[in-house]
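Record 1 of the preview.
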Amino acid sequence: MIASLTGHVAEKDDNSIVIQISGFGLQVRVPAGIRDEVQVGQTVTLHTFLVVRETELSLYGFPTKEEREFFNLLLGVSGVGPRLALAALSTLTPDAIRRAVFNEQAAVFSQVPGVGKTTAGKILLHLKNKIKDVDGLELVAVLDDVGAEVLAALTALGYSVVEAQAALQSIPRDAPKDVEERLRIALGYFSGPG
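->
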């Protein structure tokens, strides 16, 4: 098993990067965010997962061990293959996945391209039994109706679920419970200070 690798990014394409290591170029499929962040020539370290099929060996890489663990968990869901698991981690962070499981929000998984209502339900059911470690979840407020409306409004405006959840977390706890006011504060997150 190839557990991790460190090397220079030799090239990038639509769904993978090629990492040069000691004269070898390894093609590694990575989440979209990583692919967009890395630059050709940059040194990267990835925690990897090797998928073995009859006709191919595919290497998937993640910036953290936690993301690799979630990838492995997602592969255990009936109907979820490596590409769909990678799409899930391109759309949702491990914390977003934990929150969705903790709050039993299958609809969050429906935001992943290629995941329908049935598969979203399967993912939730499977992960509910697998994610035992809830460290930090006590710090995450359960998404109430107002938060759900703000999240829906942000995603309707074109922000990803991950971006929308980050903006929700930036809203002070003592902020008014009014949807419009919370949406205004959340949008302020995207404009930054100033």
